[in-house]
TrEMBL record:
Chief location bin: membrane
Protein name: Tol-Pal system protein TolQ
TM regions (residue ranges): 12-39, 139-162, 182-204
Annotated ranges, domain MotA/TolQ/ExbB proton channel: 87-219
Topology in membrane: Multi-pass membrane protein
Keyword presence, Cell cycle: yes
InterPro entries, per database record: ExbB/TolQ_transport, MotA_ExbB_proton_chnl, Tol-Pal_TolQ
Family: Belongs to the ExbB/TolQ family.
Source species, domain of life: Bacteria
Function, in words: Part of the Tol-Pal system, which plays a role in outer membrane invagination during cell division and is important for maintaining outer membrane integrity.
Length: 234
């Protein structure tokens, strides 16, 4: 029996059983998608943070709220215009507040400050949920890859080791050289599973933390802006 077998990484993959190769292909595909979402989410969160800081600077600079609202509408009408999540939350609340005031003025009645504020708050909450859904998109996929990939890789490893030991029944003398290639082929599945899982887990934890911090800033803005609108509604 020839014991000088090719134990290179590529040879171990190509010589693995069909099921183990399918497991490796599945894990590599999951890893490619995972890295794609990791980079996309990194740029999206970085952009959202920068846009939030820019809008907060404009909002608290003491300018006119109606002028800021008109600028937000203008940014939204521009082709590809994207003023950021916080600007859209502000626009939703200010727009609903203005519509409610205009409706009361048309009817010639007296504006109820609590009703005006409730409408604006509901509009901002709805916009907040949409923005959070967009920020949290694909995080569930990263969590699934991080939690499932090691077990998928372990399945491929167990199957490969079973085949390796089963092949020992066809040889007269069981040696380490005879079983080593089969075990090495099987262990690659676990390695690929960890390669897919570790970056996904790290990215998920990091991005969840960053999104939670953005959510706190959004919620704080909603409360502070609601107080401003309440003073204007009196």
């Amino acid at each position: 029996m020839n014991v000088t077998q090719d134990l290179s990484f590529f040879a171990l993959i190509t010589n693995a059983s069909v099921l183990v190769q399918l497991v490796m292909l599945l894990l590599l595909t999951a890893s490619v998608f995972s890295w794609t979402y990791i980079f996309r989410k990194m740029f999206a969160i970085r952009s959202a943070r920068a846009q939030t800081e820019e809008f907060e600077r404009l909002f608290w600079s003491g300018g006119n709220l109606m002028a800021l609202y008109q600028d937000a509408l203008s940014n939204r009408r521009k082709a590809g215009g994207n003023g950021g999540a916080l600007e859209r939350i502000f626009q939703a609340g200010m727009g609903e507040f203005n519509k409610a005031k205009a409706s009361v003025a048309t009817r010639g009645g007296t504006a109820d400050s609590s009703q005006l504020l409730d409408g604006a708050r509901r509009a901002m909450r709805a916009s907040y949920q949409r923005e959070m859904d967009a920020l949290e998109s694909h995080l569930a996929f990263l969590a699934s890859v991080g939690s499932v990939s090691p077990y998928v890789g372990l399945f491929g490893t167990v199957w490969g080791i079973m085949n390796a030991f089963r092949g020992l029944g066809n040889v007269q003398q069981a040696t380490l050289a005879a079983v080593a290639p089969g075990i090495a082929e099987a262990l690659i599945a676990t390695a690929i599973g960890l390669f897919a899982a570790i970056p996904a887990v790290v990215a998920y934890n990091r991005y969840s933390h960053d999104i939670d911090r953005l959510a706190i800033r959004f919620e704080s803005f909603i409360e502070e802006f609601s107080n401003i609108l309440q003073r204007q509604a009196r």
